[in-house]
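Morning, I've got a small favour to ask if you have a moment. I owe you a coffee for this, so here goes:

…
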Amino acid sequence: VRLVESGGGLVQPGGSLRLSCAAAGFTFSSYTMSWYRQAPGKEREWVAGITSTGGTTNYADAVKGRFTISRDNANNIVFLQMNSLKPEDTAVYYCKGRIWARDYWGQGTQVTVSS
């Protein structure tokens, strides 16, 4: 199993970024995928999740209405579109899949929201 995030960077408050997570080594279209984040000095927290077909999505209250999770099962990618970014969104963002009863994580991508 391999998960590789990309798309992070430095953005001003109010700006947007789209994160991608490319998956390999398992039947991507069969599994729910999630995004988490970890800010400096804080525990890792769940951000959003999407079911295998993309039919159901869920969000943490802190990002609801600003972030959108989606997936492309033909290309084994899960996305996180982040709009109206705030300084408190600054964190390392990770994608996660629970595959064969085990959690697999990517290496993370840094998102910094600052003027």
Q: What stands out?
A: The CA atoms of residues 69 and 80 lie 5 Å apart. The first strand starts at residue 2 and ends at 6. The mean pLDDT is 97. The radius of gyration is 13 Å.
